[in-house]
Specification:
Blueprint lengths: L2 H20 L5 E9 L8 H20 L4 E5 L1 H10 L13 H7 L4 E4 L8 H10 L7 E6 L16 E2 L7 E2 L3 E6 L9 E5 L17 E3 L13 H16 L9 E8 L5 H19 L4 E2 L2 H10 L6 E4 L8 E6 L6 E2 L4 E2 L3 E9 L6 E9 L5 E6 L5 E9 L5 E2 L5 E3 L4 E5 L13 E3 L2 E3 L13 H12 L18 H12 L8
Parallel strand pairs: 1-2, 1-10, 1-11, 2-3, 4-7, 7-9, 13-22
Antiparallel strand pairs: 5-6, 8-9, 8-12, 13-18, 14-15, 16-17, 16-19, 19-20, 19-21, 23-24
């Protein structure tokens, strides 16, 4: 193999590695869950029929828009379905009772929800079976740390017989929606694991059968809910994931909840808005719709049953985001208007007042096409700052004179590529219509000079390859092309300019 062929193959391998390393792949799964409660008057025909009609509309919208729904019902609603779903009532559900239609025609999961004051979980599962379906073995809500009416979720581990239907046996696989009496201090978690016991709820025990699917951050939609409030809970999770504030190896189970007893047209429309917006994020690859059972299946197969949980209180809040557009001249291709690769940059926020102390910093990937990166500042208070950009072989570059105003908790943008005046002292190199950070400060001492040239020359002599500071063009190889860029800048006495 000649040298040219070898280098071409090596470059292809390196680029494939970089693309794989920096690609965005999310483990965020969005579900939709509803409850029908035993204290709601479903034995009233008009009460039931009104909600039945809206349920049908919502189910059609969910399916048409590829959302996922787990429909959890207590005994009273199921008895209403059994009593009232006859004759003309079932015209809009293909001649089937509502539960059977939701499951068979719409692919919506229907599972037991039980307060266990009269009917236990096996009884409610039996009522589902009476309506002609097999529940997906989800325990739809449970008290996670107390025994109530002689029952607790630990009893479900090996399955139970009904209290009313004493010969019916039901063994679930999935716990969802762990709570407390009157929902005081409910656990709010993302993730999935097998709880060992009530006393050791957060201890994963692989020998157990029941898997807990976290219900997220108590995200509920009422007819009075501002949809943006519900969406912001999802956005907070997606942003924390995208910005690297939570583990990118985590298993994040986001959920939105609705009570069917309160269901009205206003609530229906709010859920439609929620679905429409989530689908925008889904199209961007940031989140996936999955039902509770699908999340369980994903955890078992795609996630290899690894235990993971993150409490909602652990999601960072109050941070600021600096969306920075910048690129080094060596990486930038003016014809293609893109960079040779995505790469890591570090951004510092320095006080705009002398002595310009570093107040905060963040590291992020700047994209090769958009030339943008999001840098999360966890500590900086509101104030005036200089933005300082550093790169493995780019000259440290400061933002324009007098700094800029940052408001804590906000998102701000700054574009170094739009004008030479965006850098302090106009310290940028023009390539085509873009302004780039000077390349060649390999040793990061603030000046491009003979010391940098020596490092590049040595690496070029040995045909060094890989992720190197001496690779100014980002092609994975240090060669004469890199040396030429640095030599031009050294000849021009290019160096750091700062206040």
């Amino acid at each position: 193999m000649n040298e040219t062929s070898y280098r071409a193959i090596l470059i292809a391998v390196l680029l494939a590695f970089f693309i794989t390393s920096f690609s965005f792949a999310g483990n965020i799964y969005q579900s939709f869950v509803t409850h029908n409660e035993e204290n709601e008057p479903y034995n009233n025909y008009n009460y039931y029929i009104l909600r039945r009609g809206i349920i049908v509309q919502l189910a059609q919208y969910v399916v048409q828009n590829n959302a996922r729904w787990n429909f959890q019902s207590d005994w009273k609603f199921l008895q209403a379905v059994n009593n009232f779903d006859t004759g003309n009532v079932v015209t809009n559900t293909n001649g089937k009772n509502l539960i059977k239609w939701l499951t068979e025609d719409m692919g919506i999961e229907c599972d037991p929800h039980a307060h266990e004051t009269q009917y236990n979980y096996a009884d409610v599962a039996y009522l589902h079976a009476q309506l002609g379906i097999t529940p997906t073995k989800v325990v739809g809500g449970f008290i996670y740390n107390q025994i109530i009416n002689g029952n607790n979720w630990e009893n479900l581990e090996q399955g139970i017989y009904g209290r009313v239907y004493t010969t019916y046996f039901w063994k679930p696989d999935i716990l969802w929606g762990g709570g407390t009496p009157l929902h005081v201090n409910d656990p709010s978690n993302y993730g999935a694991w097998k709880p060992q016991s009530m006393a050791n709820y957060y201890v994963h025990d692989s020998t157990k059968n029941l898997t807990l699917i976290g219900n997220g951050c108590a995200n509920k939609i009422y007819d009075t809910t501002a949809v943006n409030t519900a969406l912001n809970k999802v956005r907070n999770l997606m942003n924390a994931y995208e910005y690297g504030l939570i583990p990118d190896t985590g298993f994040y189970t986001s959920n939105v909840f609705m009570s069917i007893g309160q269901l009205n047209t206003a609530q229906l429309n709010k859920m439609k808005q929620f679905i429409d917006t989530i689908n925008i994020y889904a199209s961007q690859g940031k989140i996936q719709w999955k039902s509770v059972k699908e999340i369980y299946d994903t955890w078992n197969s795609g996630y290899s049953r690894k235990p993971f949980y993150l409490q909602c209180a652990q999601l960072p809040t109050g941070y600021s985001v600096a969306n920075i557009t910048a690129m080094t001249e060596g990486f930038y291709d003016a014809v293609a208007n893109s960079s040779s690769m995505r790469d890591t940059f570090r951004v510092y926020l320095r006080s705009a007042a002398s002595p310009y102390d570093v107040v905060d910093s963040a590291k992020a990937i700047i994209d090769s096409v958009s030339m943008k990166g999001s840098f999360v500042m966890l500590n900086a208070p509101s104030g005036n700052y200089y933005i300082v950009v550093k790169h493995r072989n780019g000259l440290e570059t400061w933002s324009r004179a007098n700094g800029f105003a940052l408001t804590r908790g906000s998102v701000m943008s700054y574009d170094f590529t739009s004008s030479v005046t965006q850098a302090y002292g106009n310290n940028l190199s023009q390539k085509g219509s873009k302004y780039c950070i000077f390349s060649g400060d390999v040793n990061n001492d603030g000046v491009i000079d003979s010391e940098d040239l020596s490092i590049i020359d040595n690496d070029a002599y040995t045909i060094a390859s890989g992720y190197l500071a001496s690779d100014l063009t980002g092609d994975g190889i240090t060669d004469a092309g890199d040396l030429s860029i640095a030599d031009n800048n050294a000849f021009g006495f290019v160096q750091l300019i700062r206040p």
